[in-house]
Amino acid sequence: MTDISPQNEAFPKDGGKTYNLVEVVRGRTTMIEKGPDNTIFSFPVVAILELLIALGTFAALIIFSLIKNAPLEALANPLVTTDPAKAPWYFMGLQEMLEHAHPLVSGVILPTVMVLFVMAIPYLDNSRVGAGLWFTSTRGKRIALWTAIYTAIVMPAYIVLDNLFPPRELLRGIVPDFVAQSLIPVLIMAVIVLLPVLVLMRWKPNAREVVLVLFTVLFISAVIFTISGFFFRGPGFKLYWPWDMPNGYNPLNNL
Fold first, then answer.
1. What is the CA radius of gyration of the chain?
2. Which residues pair with 106 in a beta bridge?
3. Is the model's pTM score more than 0.90?
4. CB under 8 Å to 249, separation ≥6 — which residues?
5. Which is nearest to 185 in space by CA: 205, 163, 218, 214?
6. Is 239 helix (H, G, I), strand (E, B) or coil?
7. Measured distance CA(63)–CA(66) in Å, rounded
8. Residue 71 confidence class, pLDDT cut points 50, 70, 90
């Protein structure tokens, strides 16, 4: 016997449930060939853009190689050191940094911190608000602009002042070498980098705006140090105007 009492009915009378009649039919849904909102297809849209960028870069290299001659120099003489001995332009910023602090600090520790910071950006800023937009918002554009202007003024001033009054020379014999060559340069760089962040704190920034400030300082500083090392360092790796280099040295020859 089957119990058909009201409390055991499959469809009880006056129940709170609602039921629909569903069936499977042949057809196409409205989501066919449609990606998530605010996205584009990686192929062919992004693939075509990447191909155009690659072709443009290749064409620029070909044109540059036709305009600028790059002859081989004479065999290196181990008894004669090239003056100035410069790294390739893409390492020029790093070589410029070596002029301002101990090699362990400016050649190993600081570059490592910079790389770790760039790697940590997705973890420091994981908000989806404004994702994919340059500088996120109008306020972000202003932050990036003023940070770039600040860095473009302060970093060249630091290079010139440190060249005129190097702490490692002025404090030689007065304080330990670690303080003059490592601690003081690191503190100066930390103040330069963190000052715009401290100013921004007055407006209660979010994580993305703080990262935007730090990344802008990092990027503009890399450009400034590269330009300084490439165009303004001459014999003895001293600062000169590009058109006033001694001994007939021309920085453009390093291209």
1. 30
2. none
3. no
4. 84, 234, 235
5. 163
6. strand
7. 5
8. confident
